Amino acid sequence: MTTLREVAAAAGVSMATVSRALAGSTIVAARTRERVSQIAAELDYQPNRAARQLVTGRGQAIGLVVPDLQNAFYASVATGMQRRVRAAGLNAMIGDTDEDPARELEVLSQLAMVCDGAVLASSRTSDADLAEVAGRTRVVLVNRVLEGVPAVVGDNADGMAQAVAHLAALGHTRIGYAGGPATSWSDARRREGLATAARRELTADGVVDLGAFRPGSAGGIAAADRALANGVTAILAFNDQLALGILGRLADRGVAVPQQMSVVGFDDVPVARLLAPPLTTVSVPALEMGSAAVDLLLSSEEPATRVLPVELQVRRSTAEPARHSGRT
Amino acid sequence: MTTLREVAAAAGVSMATVSRALAGSTIVAARTRERVSQIAAELDYQPNRAARQLVTGRGQAIGLVVPDLQNAFYASVATGMQRRVRAAGLNAMIGDTDEDPARELEVLSQLAMVCDGAVLASSRTSDADLAEVAGRTRVVLVNRVLEGVPAVVGDNADGMAQAVAHLAALGHTRIGYAGGPATSWSDARRREGLATAARRELTADGVVDLGAFRPGSAGGIAAADRALANGVTAILAFNDQLALGILGRLADRGVAVPQQMSVVGFDDVPVARLLAPPLTTVSVPALEMGSAAVDLLLSSEEPATRVLPVELQVRRSTAEPARHSGRT
DNA sequence: TTGAAAGCGCTAACAT
DNA sequence: ATGTTAGCGCTTTCAA
């Protein structure tokens, strides 16, 4: 590894001049700067990040904490985040918490030691703890809002409104909501949006709360069974991960989608369109959320909440309800 | 931030003693160690990683380079890798290359600056470049083998043998192989395994090379169309990502799976079982590959290649071929 | 415009 | 068993 000192020696100038030249400082003579840059390149000089961080205090990486990388939504957020970070010449560090809220702070503080800041996706940490962390570390939230902390979120209420409007237009009058984890901020927002939309489009008992489920196939089984027991004609799932599980269970139980049951997801993960039937779902710009979060982290503006638009993708997992589900 | 110096002052000992005590060195008196640890805890002392790295040379993180985090297989490798890394008290840094082989070295060298070592998954870099990198940085390969570099791979040949045996037993005599990227090491191994198995189970023209495709839905469309044009009764896909695209295209073209076409994938990503029909595929222990790679990286043994067993999961995307596919 | 010098927080010889 | 000391590679005052 070539060091600054070696470059300085080769160029016949001081270390300070090399440091300034390489940083592009204008106070160093243009000719000197050029020569130094060239020699540094020849020697294949790579600055030692640890040394730089030690003296500047500023790090070289940005962290991302997600509940589960295997959820395609978070994989997309990670991809978007990572592209932006790399474009800024920094590194991305990613940690997942295995859907365990308790591990969130642990992972974050571990990342924070080497990171300038971190993006926290779908945090389930309490407001108080979160505020405390945000006080110590530069943090941007994704899919969560907290006063004074910058955040990027999808328009949850509007997404639910679109989904309900679509189902109502098809003629559904009893819709089941398969909720996400109880501590999920997005789930709370989606429930609110759902309630508002339901008041507008449906009768009082138009929405049935199926309960709270862990995204994944286990949760999907429970959710689908509850939906069937409740006699709803459509299921609105908290996210695609859960909708996937629901679809699987319905297929196992011989329930035809969309003929006997309509299913709507949320997120529009890439596989959604490849399922049979292709899943009707609310498309959330996950890649953009990741990059926008990095922008917020890197910019020095006031903490702001960026709400990204979402859009229902109508595919083939939704249709008119069966006329007489009992007969025929 | 509390520093070592402050802890030393508070404890009334030298910095060196604190350093040793906190490192758990046995040469420091037990009582001293205890007192120092307690004071450090009271002061909420957190060692500065940059300073430590600067002096020891050893970093604090382990890197992972994958072609595409949105491919569920790599997301699983990342998860497995990450759990192991965190269990070792280190951080994981993940970078993806957007399936661009050229970016691989770039991402790796960026990660290498702050990492003790890196796991390189499905590298498509040339042997020469890879050997050069492995000389500079501690590297473990996943899904790639190179003399002198530790590696974790799935048993590609055996996987193909199982898949071919399954299809042959069902009565298929013309199988199309939808290959992966030309520079993919696993694709080459899978082709070899396929050829060997075909010699044993099928006639000379039993396997049709459909070509090389990029995993994803675009590649799947091309692959499915080629398969249909070639009159094969079964498609063996390089990986699930590609199989997903194939399934999607077949559905679009009204080809019933498995009645008119059988499809077999490779990897067994979590959604494979949730597709309609559930995908028959070769299960590869992705999580384990990730953690095994970290083990290899952290251990100081001789470079070894760990071959992990794979197992065909027969689901419902495969069946006997139609008797007379032309008629009826 | 350039250089000298003082650390950033920590570890590891070496000395006691 | 503990302390002293000399840096790790870099940035950044301060002085020239």
TrEMBL record, chains A, B:
Stretch forming the signal peptide: none
Segments traversing the membrane: none
MF annotations from Gene Ontology: DNA-binding transcription factor activity; transcription cis-regulatory region binding
Residues covered by the HTH lacI-type domain: 2-56
Record InterPro entries: HTH_LacI, LacI/GalR-like_sensor, Lambda_DNA-bd_dom_sf, Peripla_BP_I
Keyword Transcription regulation: yes
Sorted UniProt keywords: DNA-binding, Transcription, Transcription regulation
Gene3D superfamilies linked to this entry: 3.40.50.2300, lambda repressor-like DNA-binding domains
Pfam families xref list: LacI, Peripla_BP_3
Keyword Transcription belongs to the record: yes
Protein name according to UniProt: Transcriptional regulator, LacI family
Species this chain originates from: Ruania alba
Taxonomic classification: Bacteria, Bacillati, Actinomycetota, Actinomycetes, Micrococcales
